[in-house]
């Protein structure tokens, strides 16, 4: 039967992703139209404050942004623009939103990537250690610490790290230096505190998941078999237990992206002054620059959607037992 | 023999006796988890503080510039001031006083009073928003499982769409559109946070529908509503309790995060808003940044400990 079921499955998942994408865009559209702070109101407040004639200004704005057209025309125009990659015009920075995002996404990306790597590697190692040494003092200590890690507010952790390592000890700069070249040791040093800030919560989560998954798998019959065969403990843990515990971890890492990582990155960027997507969204909120706020939320949502899709598909390769109908 | 078994049935049949027995049983299991008990104790303490605390503290919004920059009791702060007439910088040592145990901020407002007022807001937001989310999630989950077919399909696809949005960024967008007020924040968190509960309740409902006692009650002519309220809800109530306890910290952190970036209700001294002003003055008045964070941290930790303890206590497979 070959791989045709896999192709069918991927096509099915793609159609499904397109449906979800339509849902996301529609909900965002409705949100923007029912909100009291519609774009026209925001422009109006700005311009009326400078002595313009409100009625005239409003008519001009509505005509320019197509707000005088029927709602379904607006909806199709909104969809059409997004499909052509036109995310609108950021008036607080006077450039197309897409250009703004092209210059800033890399800062969010490097932060999230480094924090994920830091958290996944360290979290898995501590989780394995804790599971193998279950009910020892070290296990209790790590379990307690991981509780603290999932409970500590990201932004407060960032502030405390700055207070201790930057203000008191002077090891790091208080604010992220945007003039640093991206691929340099100085940049890496500047990212140490932000990565710890964003990574701690993730790390603690991964410790807990790895530990409980490892413990579940340690009880399975195939582990007893492997030990009975006389395999060294290192092989039993590394090949039999860890590989089986890894798969659920992949899902958790991907799931965290939407629920924890993007929110955490937003606040981390704000605390450290990193000019990523969170920072431009934050600035846009206070400049009433609504196309930027919408664009950042939409782009993050679509990243989550694509990552979910990639996870589902990669699963079929990671675990040969999985077959989707 | 027959008499004995009859007696057992009638004993376990009295609902009040069974109820207290079960509560007692779970309480015994929770009590063995020291961290869960510590968490519960802290939450009770916090609730008491939030209710009666404001009676004993000063106004958490009142500024008093004669008493500004006072550090917590036991600490000393070196306050420097520039005198324009003499063109000199004078420094003055300020000691912590028993009148302001946790110190005051740059406007002279008592930190303890602000933290207690913040506890009120955090707990209120946490409980109400979680309540809305859990009720909504239960309704959607039950409807999805019982209606089935296209209704189930639509409800679950809608759940998928809501789950794809990164939670915090969706909150930022909605609060940006509707404006920052406490009511909006509570409503938004409640109306977006139901997805996990809906999925869980739906899968529980689907599996319970095929269980013998549900099939039996249906065979006896029970309506769907009776099955839902007599069998389904009582069976998932422990799961709902765990989910709610573990959801509260996320809600409290979301509100604090929104307040911290300036999207909170500007008229209330929530922990996030105190932290925001503390962040601005952290190089000098470090305690204004440290104290609200400690309160947030301990509160979230307490709910996580309690939630974890509840999960172990309700899980018949776990050995407490």
Walk me through what this model shows.
The complex is a heterodimer of chains A (325) and B (320). Chain A is built from 13 helices and two strands, in the order H-H-H-H-E-E-H-H-H-H-H-H-H-H-H. Chain A is mainly α and 325 residues long. In chain A, helix 2 runs antiparallel to helix 3. Chain A is globular. The two termini of chain A are 13 Å apart. Chain B has two domains: 28-69 and 104-314, MetI-like fold, CATH 1.10.3720.10; 73-98, no CATH class. Chain B has a two-stranded antiparallel ribbon with strand order 1-2. In chain B, a hairpin with a 4-residue loop joins strand 1 (76-83) and strand 2. The longest helix of chain B is centred in the middle third of the chain and has 37 residues, at 111-147. Mean pLDDT of chain B is 84; it is low at 1-17.
Structural class of chain A: mainly alpha
Low-confidence stretches of chain A: none
Major sheet attributes of chain A: 2 strands, antiparallel
CATH class wording of the largest domain in chain B: Mainly Alpha
Q: State the distance separating the first and last CA atoms of chain A.
A: 13 Å
CATH topology of the largest domain in chain B: MetI-like fold
Shape of chain A: globular
Q: What ranges of chain B have pLDDT less than 50 throughout 5 or more consecutive residues?
A: 1-17
Biggest sheet architecture of chain B: 2 strands, antiparallel
Please work out how many helical segments of chain B DSSP would assign.
12
Give the overall average pLDDT of chain A: 84
Helix content estimate of chain B: 55-70%
Number of strands of chain A: 2
**Helix and strand sequence of chain A:** HHHHEEHHHHHHHHH
């Amino acid at each position: 039967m070959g791989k045709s079921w896999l192709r069918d499955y991927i096509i099915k998942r793609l159609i499904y992703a397109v449906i979800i994408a339509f849902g996301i865009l529609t909900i965002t559209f409705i949100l923007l139209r029912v909100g009291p702070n519609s774009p026209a109101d925001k422009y109006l407040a700005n311009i009326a404050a400078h002595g313009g004639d409100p009625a005239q200004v409003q008519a001009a704005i509505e005509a320019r942004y197509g707000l005088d057209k029927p709602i379904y025309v607006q909806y199709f125009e909104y969809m059409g623009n997004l499909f052509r990659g036109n995310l609108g015009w950021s008036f607080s920075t006077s450039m197309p939103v897409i250009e703004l995002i092209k210059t800033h996404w890399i800062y969010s990306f490097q932060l999230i990537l480094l924090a994920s790597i830091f958290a996944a590697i360290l979290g898995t190692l501590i989780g394995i250690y804790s599971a193998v040494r279950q009910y020892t003092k070290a296990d209790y200590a790590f379990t307690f610490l991981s509780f603290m890690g999932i409970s500590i507010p990201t932004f407060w952790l960032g502030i405390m790290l700055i207070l201790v390592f930057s203000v008191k000890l002077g090891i790091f700069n208080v604010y992220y230096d945007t003039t640093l070249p991206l691929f340099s040791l100085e940049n890496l040093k500047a990212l140490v505190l932000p990565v710890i800030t964003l990574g701690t919560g993730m790390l603690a989560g991964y410790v807990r998941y790895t530990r409980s998954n490892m413990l579940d798998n340690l009880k399975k019959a195939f582990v007893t078999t492997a030990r009975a065969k006389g395999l060294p403990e290192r092989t039993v843990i590394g090949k039999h237990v860890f590989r089986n515990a890894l798969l659920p971890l992949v899902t958790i890492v991907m799931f965290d992206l939407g629920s924890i990582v993007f929110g955490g990155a937003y606040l981390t960027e704000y605390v450290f002054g990193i000019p990523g997507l969170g920072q431009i969204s934050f600035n846009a909120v206070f400049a009433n620059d609504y196309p930027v706020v919408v664009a950042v939320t939409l782009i993050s949502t679509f990243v989550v959607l694509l990552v979910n899709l990639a996870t589902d598909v990669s699963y079929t390769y990671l675990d040969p037992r999985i077959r989707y109908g | 023999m027959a008499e004995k078994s009859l007696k057992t049935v009638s004993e376990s049949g009295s609902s009040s006796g069974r109820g207290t027995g079960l509560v007692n049983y779970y309480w015994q299991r929770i009590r063995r988890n020291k961290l869960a008990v510590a968490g519960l104790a802290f939450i009770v303490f916090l609730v008491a503080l939030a209710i009666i605390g404001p009676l004993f503290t000063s106004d958490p919004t009142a500024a008093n510039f004669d008493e500004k920059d006072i550090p917590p009791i036991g600490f000393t702060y070196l306050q420097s001031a520039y005198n324009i007439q003499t063109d000199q910088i004078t420094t003055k040592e300020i000691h912590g006083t028993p009148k302001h145990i946790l110190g005051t901020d740059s406007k002279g407002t008592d930190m303890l009073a602000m933290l207690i007022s913040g506890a009120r807001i955090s707990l209120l937001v946490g409980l109400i928003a979680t309540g809305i989310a859990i009720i909504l999630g239960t309704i959607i989950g039950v409807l999805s499982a019982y209606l089935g077919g296209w209704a189930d399909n639509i409800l679950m696809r809608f759940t998928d769409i809501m789950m794809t949005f990164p939670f915090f960024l969706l909150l930022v967008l909605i609060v940006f559109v509707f404006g920052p007020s406490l009511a909006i924040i509570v409503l938004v968190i409640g109306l977006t946070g139901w997805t996990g509960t809906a999925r869980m309740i739906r899968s529980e409902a689907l599996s319970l529908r095929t269980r013998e006692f549900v099939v039996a009650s249906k065979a006896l002519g029970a309506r769907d509503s009776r099955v839902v309220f007599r069998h389904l809800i009582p069976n998932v109530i422990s799961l709902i309790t765990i989910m709610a306890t573990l959801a509260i910290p996320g809600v409290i952190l979301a509100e604090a995060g929104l307040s911290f970036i300036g999207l909170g209700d500007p008229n209330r001294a929530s922990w996030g808003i105190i932290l925001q002003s503390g962040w601005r003055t952290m190089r000098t008045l470090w305690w204004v940044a440290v104290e609200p964070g400690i309160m947030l941290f301990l509160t979230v930790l307490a709910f996580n400990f309690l939630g974890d303890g509840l999960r172990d206590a309700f899980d018949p497979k776990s050995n407490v």
